[in-house]
Amino acid sequence: MGTLRYTAICSIDGCTARSDGQFDFATPSAEVHAAVNAAESDVRLEVYGRRMWETMEFWATDAPLSDAAPDVVREFALQWRATPKVIASDSLAALDVPGVPGVRLEPRLTPERLAAIVAEADGVVSIGGATVAGVAVRAGLVDDVQLYVVPHTVGGGLRALPDGVEAAWRLRETRVFADGVVWLRYGRA
What we know:
Structural class: alpha/beta
């Protein structure tokens, strides 16, 4: 039986992207990137919504594996490519991702189907993208929340956590990075 983890990089006002969809404020430093690599190294399956998938497809290109790419970028690219993925989208007809094995489409990812996917997993399932993760948070399926809070406000946009959900969480770990980013890890209370 697996556990479900939601990880997001967000502004201090709680947004993963601005109102216009841009998220350049969230580009991690090498130190933060290395920490993300380490924190995500135990993930056995990744679940993305369509927009997060379109963002993460960059890791399937040659760019992150080039000689010019920093070590932390190459490390993440290899780690990302090796992890199977479920893409939740009713608007994508098919997926063809050369060099990335185990990518499958789940057209209707209901909370019940997500719970079944997590139950079938052998270890940590990571859910990425505030919209699809919001469904999991609302359904009470998320076991672990990891937020990398960037010292920046965006004044509104896509919220990391959905409105209208009340739940108790227990702070498990924290870390402050040299650039002012704070990592917060919460588990179910």
